[in-house]
Write a structure and sequence with these properties.
Order of helices and strands: HHHHHEHEHEHEHEEEHEEH
Number of strands: 9
Largest sheet: 7 strands, mixed
Number of domains: 1
Distance between the termini: 49 Å
Strand order of the largest sheet: 1-9-8-2-5-3-4
Structural class: alpha/beta
Length: about 290
C-alpha cells in the first residue's frame, strides 16, 4: 500500500509544470538537508570540501535545493520526454555527428549533474543508444524507474558482464553507449584515483571500451537554466584515454571536475562518492 502511494505521488509530481516541479524539488532538498543528519553530513562534507579546494564560497542550502531539483528534473524528463526535448538548448552537436560518422561508435559520459536524464533522449532521436545502469535496491522503485525511463531507440543494460558485452556489440555496430562515470563501481571493478582531491573508487570501463577501437568519447553536461526554463546541453570531445587504467580514470575524473565547476550547485553532492565498496582494495595513503 505504501509503495503504491509513493508511486502515485511520484507520478503526480512529474505531471506538474516543470517550474512547479522544480520548486517542490528545491523544497524537498532543503528539508532533507535540515531534517536528516546523515544526508546533511555527507552532503556538507562532499560539497564544502570541493568548494574549499577550488576557492569557491560554499552555499550549502542552495546546493541542497539544487540537489532536490536534480531528482525532480529526472522524474519530469522521464514523464515528459517530448516537452523536455523542446526545453533543451544544445551546444556543439556537430562534435557528436562527426564522432558517429567515423563509424567506430560513441562513448558518451553523463555525470549526475543538472538535467542529465535528457541527454540520452537527445541522442536517441538520431541513433540507437545503449545505456549502462545499476538497478535500484528497492524493487518497487526499480520498477518505476524502468517504466519511466523507457524510450524509443534507448536500450538499458545492467552493470554486469552481459551488459558490457552488449555495449561492446553496440560500439561494433557504430552505435552510442552511455555510462554514468561518477557512479562507484562494484568492488574489484574499479581503481582508486583522485576526484576533487580525494581518492574515489572509479570505473575504468569508459577507457577500456574507447581504447578497443579508438572510439570517440564525449562528456555531456546538462546545466539547468532558471526555474522552468530547461537545460543547456554541452558536448565536450575528450582527448584519447591513456592505456593505463589509473591514468585514464584520473583523466576522466578531471574532465568531470571541469564540468561540475561550471555550475557547482547542480552536482549530486549527496551521493557517497568516496565510499569503499565491499571487495575493493583499500585506497592508497596520501
Amino acid at each position: 500500500m505504501q509503495n503504491t502511494v509513493l508511486r502515485l505521488l511520484l507520478k503526480g509530481l512529474a505531471s506538474l509544470p516543470l517550474g512547479l516541479t522544480q520548486l517542490l524539488g528545491s523544497l524537498g532538498g532543503i528539508l532533507a538537508y535540515l531534517g536528516s543528519s546523515h544526508f546533511r553530513g555527507l552532503f556538507r562534507d562532499n560539497y564544502s570540501h570541493a568548494m574549499a579546494l577550488n576557492g569557491i564560497a560554499a552555499r550549502p542550502l542552495r546546493a541542497a535545493a539544487a540537489s532536490g531539483i536534480l531528482f525532480t528534473d529526472s522524474l519530469w524528463i522521464w514523464h515528459n520526454p517530448q516537452k523536455a526535448l523542446i526545453r533543451a538548448e544544445i551546444q556543439n552537436w556537430e562534435l557528436v555527428e562527426h564522432a558517429i560518422a567515423k563509424g567506430k561508435g560513441l562513448v558518451m559520459l553523463t555525470p549526475h549533474f543538472g538535467g542529465f536524464e535528457i541527454i540520452p533522449r537527445i541522442l536517441a532521436k538520431h541513433f540507437p543508444a545503449t545505456i549502462l545502469y545499476r538497478p535500484a535496491r528497492q524493487e518497487w522503485l526499480n520498477d518505476v524507474i524502468e517504466e519511466q525511463r523507457a524510450y524509443p531507440n534507448m536500450h538499458f543494460v545492467p552493470t554486469n558482464l552481459n551488459g558490457v558485452r552488449k555495449m561492446v556489440k553496440a560500439l561494433q555496430e557504430g552505435e552510442a553507449v552511455g555510462i554514468l562515470p561518477d557512479q562507484v563501481p562494484s568492488g574489484g571493478d574499479g581503481v582508486w584515483v583522485k576526484f576533487f582531491g580525494r581518492y574515489a573508487y572509479t570505473t575504468p570501463l569508459p577507457a577500456r571500451l574507447a581504447n578497443r577501437n579508438q572510439t570517440p568519447v564525449i562528456l555531456f553536461s546538462a546545466i539547468r537554466k532558471s526555474i522552468g526554463q530547461g537545460w543547456l546541453i554541452k558536448a565536450r570531445l575528450l582527448e584519447p584515454f591513456s592505456d593505463d587504467a589509473n591514468t585514464a580514470a584520473l583523466q576522466m575524473n578531471q574532465a568531470i571536475e571541469t564540468v561540475v565547476l561550471e555550475a557547482p550547485l547542480q552536482f549530486i553532492w549527496s551521493y557517497n562518492r568516496y565510499k569503499h565498496p565491499e571487495g575493493a582494495l583499500l585506497p592508497p595513503e596520501d
